[in-house]
Specification:
alpha/beta, binds adenosine-5'-diphosphate, 5 strands, 44% helix, 5-stranded parallel beta sheet, single chain, Rossmann fold, globular
Length: 163
């Protein structure tokens, strides 16, 4: 039987507990999960793609492959032999965009299906953008962002406070 390889794509700038929740939920569903970190330098990410990959690898260990990609997701899927895209669905607001992406990806490659997973309710409002904004303003993100990521945020966003 062919291996069921799923790809979980995103910016992960930075990874937070909502992302990790989705990874933990999808891991037992497939033979292999590849976390695919989008190279989006033009969007001025807080962390470089290498830093994001290093942070994710530190958290998921050898349970998943972690790789970067740019360009079309369907081309990356071909390269890694993936046939399932995993996406997290938070609120109704995610749905319209996700539906468009899923149908376009299927149109580009009829072999690809997209699977949506809902996170634990505690993480339903969490996004990387909110994490960066709240952290920069001094908010407490314990329980929403893993400790090693909080340490990286501290170095990047509050260097003056530490000095
Ligand atoms: P973010 O919106 O946090 O910047 P990404 O662009 O990195 O996230 O998203 C990667 C994937 O993770 C998307 O499918 C997104 O819907 C999902 N995701 C993001 N945040 C959460 C969350 N809190 N719970 C579940 N899924 C999430």
């Amino acid at each position: 039987m062919t291996k069921r390889i799923a790809v979980y794509p995103g910016s992960f700038d930075p990874i937070h507990n909502g992302h990790l929740d989705i990874i933990e939920r999808c891991r037992p569903m497939f033979d292999e999960v590849v976390v695919a970190v989008l190279m989006n330098e033009e969007k001025k990410p807080l962390f470089s793609v290498e830093e994001r990959i290093e942070a994710i690898r530190g958290l998921v260990g050898d349970t998943c492959r972690v790789e970067s990609f740019s360009g079309l997701l369907v081309h990356f899927m071909d390269r890694v032999g993936g046939s399932i895209v995993v996406r997290g669905l938070r609120a109704v607001s995610d749905f319209e965009y996700e539906l468009q992406m899923a149908l376009m990806n299927r149109r580009l490659n009829g072999r690809i299906e997209t699977v949506f997973l809902m996170p634990k309710e505690d993480y339903i409002y969490l996004s990387s953008r909110l994490v960066k904004e709240v952290f920069a303003l001094g908010g407490n993100l314990q329980g929403l962002v893993p400790e090693p990521v909080l340490a990286r945020l501290e170095q990047r966003l509050r260097p003056a406070v530490r000095a």
